[in-house]
Amino acid sequence: MRPLRILLVAFILWCPLLVLAQSASISGKVVHGESKSPVANASVFLNNATYGTSTAEDGSFTLSGIKPGQYELIVTVVGYEDYSQTVQVGQGAIKLDISLTQKVMMLREVVISSNADWKKNYEQFRNEFIGTTENSKLCRVLNPHILNLIYHRNKQQLEAEGDEFLVVENRALGYRTKYLLKDYVSDGIEHTIKYAGRALFENLPGTPEQKKIWKLKREQAYYGSPQHFFRSLMKDRLKEDGFEAHDFTRTLNSERPPEEVIQQKIKRYKESNRDSLIRWYHVANLTKWNNENVVKIPYESVEILRKTPQAGIFAVTFPHALFVVYTKKHELTEFKDVYRPLDMENFETSIVSLFGNYILFDANGIVISNPAPLYEGTWSKAKLADMLPVDYEPGD
């Protein structure tokens, strides 16, 4: 029994060291680019992760306990241009010296609108950015009025931006998300949403019962997500994890004019010609695509996954579009333009289109390509209310 007891004690003593070996730290100092004076109270964080802090009076900072992977380090403070740097975190310490450039103040477009207009624009922004899922009902925006919202009626576009963090308490997943929104355009004609920004996730305090619910909700948001898919692809576990990735081809429906033309015709005939209006509503309901075909045999990981010269970065390439099916969940939303074979069960389905020749993603399963791929179907529903940090692991 004595040797066993010694081994047990040794194991207990080594456990903390094993945990520490799997994490790393980033430290450094932030200074003014010209005077080299320290910059205090600057926000330093890893984009879309749970690691964040502020600089001390001497400009120093430390982020510790970081899981290995590639991250984007962000430094932001009022009066300076945002700083970003890609860091590859291994199992050692990283030290950085960061110089900030003073921001040149530019006049912003001034748009005078009524309070009713702002509320209408904000409601649209909230639905499109935070979402309309069950999780979104438990999200509360703490400072909505930091947003500058502009709606261009002629282009049917809503633009949004903010100079401060938009703070959202997500009581569904247990996070306080701070989002620095830099560019947001919602196009009502093309039915697309494009935005850029940086996010910091903070765990909300909660009772043991609340944390159990949050743990379950986080897992529900994770399984079947793009993050889950890319991690499974990287580990060659698509089938085991419930994914199928098929080659998918389609052509544009020649009988359906461009969306901009359809909207112009509907607007033109709304007040003058009822018969023409009904006709153009019928045209608007036509499917966007024709000749849609899903190859029955799914891809193996090795057929679409490629390694890159950069450690921890992977590429996905496919000739047409990627038809991704998650066989462990059923889809409850009907998507008009998402094809589904008649013999396929109603599983969650997403279509991935490339902007370029490949998609780049890191070891955390996060897409780093710019521009990002276009998601249709299930993955297009995921908004801020369902977003998880890049360092999330099921069971966290």
Walk me through what this model shows.
It contains 7 helices and 21 strands. By secondary structure, it is of the alpha+beta class. The protein has 4 domains: 20-100, Immunoglobulin-like; 115-205, no CATH class; 224-251 and 290-386, no CATH class; 254-287, no CATH class. Residues 1-21 have low confidence and may be disordered. Helix 5 runs antiparallel to helix 6. A hairpin with a 5-residue loop joins strand 16 (305-307) and strand 17 (313-316). It has helices at 2-21, 115-129, 208-222, 226-234, 259-269, 274-284, 301-304; strands at residues 24-32, 43-46, 52-54, 60-66, 69-76, 83-89, 93-100, 139-141, 147-152, 157-162, 166-170, 175-187, 192-203, 243-252, 289-294, 305-307, 313-316, 321-330, 347-353, 359-362, 374-377. Helices cover 21% and strands 35% of the residues. The strands form 5 sheets. Strands 8, 9, 10, 11, 12 and 13 form a 6-stranded antiparallel sheet that branches. It has a 5-stranded antiparallel sheet with strand order 15-14-18-19-21, with no helix packed on it.
